[in-house]
Amino acid sequence: MYNIVAMRIINLSSGSDGNLTFIQSEKINLLLDDGLSCQETVKRLSVIGVKPNDINGIIVSHEHSDHIKGIDVFSSKFDIPVFAHQEVWQGLDDKLKKVSIRQRKVFDGRFEFQDLLITPVEVPHDVKCFGFSFSQDSKKISVVTDLGHINDKIINSISKSQIVYIEANYDRDMLYKSVKYPLSLKRRIDGPNGHLSNINSAEAIEKLVASGARQIVLSHLSKENNTPELAYTFISSKIGQDGIKEGEDVKIDVATTNIGSFFRLK
């Protein structure tokens, strides 16, 4: 591994099949969630030149399986601490049985980990759930997914982030035309504690660009009710109508189930 300037981040998988994000500073290597198997997690880390024993901690957003599937085995096998909000741990106790008591770390607000300041922000979902900002001096990266709506408190918490991974889970037309989902599930997804639609994501991005965001990564796309092309095209067009040019004022990428690109702050 080569020397890192400030911070860098890469999404190793995003979506309902499993979420895994790697964050690195000069002093630490973190995973945000791990919804892949231990074997697949090790494999994907190796692609970017990271060994399991290089990981200093795993931060958990919430208890859903697409975010925690690999944590139990990965943490216990490589003796890695797991950090979660005290209320999130209430839903994890019977799901992460292999994580030793010694490695169960609890936070209830912002905390420092080596050279990073980590700030959790609660987001509206059908279980207790958090997004996170990772800061170092004036440099800031934020990740917010699995939220039914976005409000001023969330925007204010992640404002001034140069890089933001934000949910663009579904296209409303695709969702309601779907023959696979019952109406009750469609309403849950589209509800205030479900997921963020393309249009709501675009509205949030406009505010984030105004606060300094220059790199947006659309995340946690539904494989049934969205596509990377649709999300990118719709959101780029929507913010363009309000005078924000993708590629000039902000760059937009899309996270998928494949390994993404590194983004870094120097």
Series of secondary-structure elements, N-terminal to C-terminal: EEEHEHHEHEEEEEHEHHHEHEE
| Global outline | globular
CATH class designation: Alpha Beta
> Could you name the CATH homologous superfamily?
Ribonuclease Z/Hydroxyacylglutathione hydrolase-like
Number of helices: 9
* Amount of beta strand: 25-35%
Task: Tell me the Rg in angstroms.
Answer: 17 Å
Number of strands: 14
CATH architectural designation: 4-Layer Sandwich
The largest pleated sheet is described as: 7 strands, mixed
Give the mean pLDDT: 96
Strand order of the largest sheet: 6-5-4-3-2-1-14
Question: Would you kindly provide a written description of the structure presented here, covering whatever features stand out?
Answer:
This protein is α/β, with parallel strands linked by helices and 266 residues long. The protein has one domain: Metallo-beta-lactamase, Chain A. 29% of the residues lie in helices and 26% in strands. The chain contains 9 helices and 14 strands. The chain has helices at residues 38-47, 65-68, 71-78, 86-92, 152-158, 172-177, 183-189, 198-210, 228-241; strands at 7-13, 20-25, 29-34, 57-59, 82-85, 104-107, 111-113, 116-122, 130-136, 139-144, 163-167, 215-219, 251-254, 263-265. It has a 7-stranded mixed sheet. Strands 7-8-9-10-11-12-13 form a 7-stranded mixed sheet. Strand 8 (116-122) and strand 9 (130-136) form a beta hairpin. Helix 8 (198-210) packs across helix 9. The radius of gyration is 17 Å and the shape is globular.
